Hints:
By secondary structure, the chain is α/β, with parallel strands linked by helices. It has a single domain, classed as 3-Layer(aba) Sandwich (Rossmann fold), CATH 3.40.50. The protein has helices at residues 15-28, 43-47, 58-63, 95-106, 127-133, 148-165, 185-197, 211-219, 223-226, 231-247, and strands at 2-6, 33-37, 71-72, 77-80, 111-115, 137-142, 171-180, 207-208.
Amino acid sequence: MKIISIITEKGGVGKTTTSIHLGAAFSERGKKVLLIDFDEQRNLSKGYKIEKTFPYNIKNFMDKTGDFRLTQRGENLYILSGSREISAEDYQRTDLRERLNYLNSKFPFDLVIIDCPPSPLNGKMKLGEIALCSSDLVISPIEPEEYSVDGINELLPQIVRIKKDFNPGLNLLGFFFNRVNVRNRRFKTFSPLAQQEGKGYFFSSMVRIDESVETAKTAGKTVFQIAPKSRASEDYKNLANEIIEKIF
Ligand SMILES: Nc1ncnc2c1ncn2[C@@H]1O[C@H](COP(=O)(O)OP(=O)(O)OP(=O)(O)O)[C@@H](O)[C@H]1O
Ligand SMILES: [Mg+2]
């Protein structure tokens, strides 16, 4: 079992979209995948049309209260739905890891993907802190804007801190640009700078801006299902292949 956090401090960069599409792509490749909605906004659960009244969620799982149940969406794809009531202060940093180790001993997974909420990582007890303290790997979507360099500069020291203080097994797998407009001339100027800041941790794949992402979201489907020949479908497949090559 490899546990991967999809995280950025900034909101709206594509964490949830990436979690959903990587989960689908990995499961298509025969990996048994668990997607965890670790965000009180529950966007990943909404993406799978799981109602907020659905009683089996990450909070029950973390609290060990009663039963918990995974939602299966495909042969190899399982979702642990989100809770609006989950609060990081109720847990220790590695509680999620312990729960996942227990789950994995009963029902093994190849890959666990944690869709993290947007929040500053500063050592305080936040869901993102728990996710990173409980993960093996980190993937971070980067907005293709001039200030994207800031996102990189903020995340790198946090990974170093958590690795040193709490989770020696944590490693950065990589950054990638999401929602890229390849015709934007400014992108050609600043993307090499961002890649330099990223210290060689950039995937060569990037995900272009594509309307079919929104269409898929509204339909509760993936771009692979509704627009298999779209740019986003091609890009997410390439990114997933690149990740699989790095991990396995
Ligand atoms: N490649 C893309 N092309 C077009 N739209 C995209 C793309 N990636 C993401 N989006 C859209 O951008 C919005 C934000 O994406 P998403 O919800 O995945 O971000 P997030 O980082 O999870 O946000 P939050 O920080 O609030 O959790 C969504 O409406 C999503 O459909
Ligand atoms: Mg999200």
